[in-house]
Write a structure and sequence with these properties.
The complex is a heterodimer of chains A (about 130) and B (about 375).
Chain A (H helix, E strand, L loop, with lengths): L8 H10 L4 E5 L4 E3 L14 E5 L3 E10 L7 E8 L4 E4 L14 E7 L8 E6 L5
Antiparallel strand pairs in A: 1-2, 1-3, 4-5, 4-7, 5-6, 7-8
Chain B lengths: L8 E8 L11 H16 L8 E4 L7 H9 L5 E3 L7 H14 L5 E8 L1 H4 L1 H4 L17 H15 L3 H15 L13 H6 L2 E3 L2 E2 L9 E9 H4 L7 E10 L15 H12 L8 E4 L5 H9 L8 H5 L17 H4 L7 H13 L12 E8 L4 E8 L5
Parallel strand pairs in B: 2-3, 2-4, 9-10
Antiparallel strand pairs in B: 1-7, 1-8, 4-7, 5-6, 8-11, 10-11
Classes of the chains: A mainly beta (about 130), B alpha/beta (about 375).
């Protein structure tokens, strides 16, 4: 059960990121993973929720290259994680247009600072199973 | 929509406000009020007859209050449901509930935006989302771009198919004196335009202009006593599937697959009975997805369906005869203008772009990032 006067779903998520971990939640009643972090599990409304740390491997579900003036194209992609949830992210260390649907990717942390929270990004993972 | 009855209400007045680029310091409510009076003049009703008011806008937080204040009216029923560009289709359903129940008799649905004058960023600021904002997608464009990319991957849809949608819209726009775009457009020009969010160039994206509109609805009985031939509401359907694009389960299937069947069932018609479609074309992938989800072609075939000018003037199915959000007008939340074109086609008021014997027109609204989907089927007296 989440006591929102003590901790928030986003707060717990960020704590994990600060430790280099990608955390997600599972509805213990149905054993279904979900993302983004919530105080109440979707569909059932249960608060019987468990935090788990992801193995960090996923597959690109879809992708775009965003063109900002005066910048290299920026990748934005949807990643299907092996544990059964999806998140928006970015695949780095590769040109934006070279990110392909079906590509295997591995999580790393984009660190936060005084102004911004940390967030997960990905790098190509070759044929990681 | 069980409980709502086919043909129980009708659109009796429809009008745009001034469109394009309005004078400095014009407000969105100026445009709503102007369109409201034009729509009332269209049917011969007066401001004092209005007892239902439905308003949604991005620049006005509490729409019904602002327009009621401006016009100094005291509506008995009001609704400001804000689900993006399809809000107005939902307002039709809600107006029908209110009119059928006798809560109001004459409902106005109004919209206005000055997004070209004040910039899109100012007119429609986005909420911060810790799970999306850091990645800097250009929203809503990148969300639809990712839907297009997935459709291309899964079904072999090509950028040329997307471009066909923009070119068809432009051809229709050239037949509409009110359209913003006045020059022809080719497939090559769409493909070679400035890339915004792959696979979309700027020509795959809707216009950013000022504008607004209003429609007037009343009971079928009262509609028969007014100036113009009533355009009946045959069917409505509405659904919400998500708010942020990350939560859309299948990027190739939209809620139109839910709202469409609802509207068709209530209307007692099938896709083959529809004479023209007005589909919210915020981006070129939209009509492709909606043609599939509304049952006009099998899933995955939308790209091939629109090829070779199939939805352009002279093609097999008239779609977005106004020129659409891509070439006619897109003042931020375009759903009301989507309906106005369908209404005018059923009335037979469309001049050079008029679809012959248009008795059934389908207007489909889209809001957010493919998030809200609402369908309204309009029909002439012949369809009752």
């Amino acid at each position: 059960m989440t006591d929102l006067t003590k901790q928030s779903p986003l707060g717990v998520y960020v704590e994990h990121l600060n430790k280099g971990e990608l955390a997600y939640q599972v509805n213990k009643d149905t054993n279904k993973a979900f993302f983004y972090p919530r105080a109440i599990a979707p569909e059932t409304g249960s608060d019987n929720i468990e935090w788990r740390v992801s193995k960090g491997l996923g597959t690109v579900y879809t992708t775009t290259a965003v063109h900002y003036k005066g910048e290299q194209p920026l990748n934005v992609a949807m990643i299907d994680m092996d544990e059964g949830y999806r998140l928006m992210s970015r695949v780095e260390d590769i040109a934006a247009m070279d990110v392909k649907i079906g590509m295997r990717v591995k999580f790393k942390v984009h660190p936060g600072d005084d102004k911004a929270l940390p967030y997960p990004v990905f790098t190509p993972a070759g044929d990681a199973k | 929509m069980s409980g709502l009855k086919k043909g129980s209400i009708a659109v009796v007045g429809a009008a745009e406000s001034d469109l394009g680029l309005v004078a400095q310091h014009t407000t969105p409510v100026d445009l709503m009020a102007q369109a409201t009076m034009r729509a009332l003049d269209d049917c011969g009703l007066k401001l004092k007859d209005v007892d239902g008011l439905f308003v949604a806008a991005t620049q006005v937080r509490m729409g019904p209050m602002s327009l009621a204040e401006y016009l100094r009216i005291k509506p008995k029923v009001f609704d400001g449901t804000q689900i993006g560009g399809s809000s107005f289709m939902t307002h039709v359903a809600h107006a029908q509930m209110a009119i059928q129940l006798g809560l109001c008799e004459v409902a106005v649905i109004a919209y206005g935006s000055t997004q070209r004058s004040v910039s899109r960023a100012a007119a429609s600021p986005r909420e911060f989302n810790p799970y999306e904002t850091p990645y800097r997608p250009i929203l809503p464009i990148s969300a639809y771009a990712m839907a297009a990319a997935r459709h291309m991957h899964q079904y072999g849809t090509k950028r040329e198919h997307l471009a066909e949608v923009a070119v068809a819209a432009r051809k229709w726009a050239l037949l509409n004196p009110k359209a913003w775009e006045k020059e022809p457009l080719t497939i090559e020009q769409v493909l070679n335009a400035r890339m915004v969010s792959y696979p979309f160039t700027v020509r795959d994206c809707c216009l950013v202009v000022d504008g607004g509109g209003a429609i007037v609805l009343t009971s079928a009985a009262k509609a028969k006593t007014l100036k113009k031939k009533p355009v009946y509401v045959l069917g409505v359907g509405e659904t919400l599937s998500h708010a942020n694009i990350s939560s859309l389960p299948d990027f190739t299937v939209t809620g139109a697959s839910v709202s469409g069947p609802q509207a068709f069932k209530m209307a007692g018609v099938k896709p083959k009975d529809v004479n023209m479609l007005s589909l919210y074309d915020a981006f070129t992938i939209n009509p492709i997805l909606f043609l599939e989800d509304l049952g006009f072609c099998p899933k995955g075939e939308g790209g091939r369906f629109v090829a070779d000018g199939a939805i352009a003037p002279g093609g097999k199915l008239p779609v977005n005869t106004s020129g659409g959000g891509l070439s006619y007008c897109h003042p931020g939340m375009y759903g009301l203008l989507v309906m106005i074109e369908a209404i005018r086609q059923v009335r037979g008021e469309c001049g050079e772009r008029q679809v012959k014997n248009c008795d059934v027109a389908l207007a489909h609204g889209n809001g957010g990032v493919l998030s809200s989907q609402c369908t309204v089927i309009f029909g002439s007296e012949n369809t009752l």
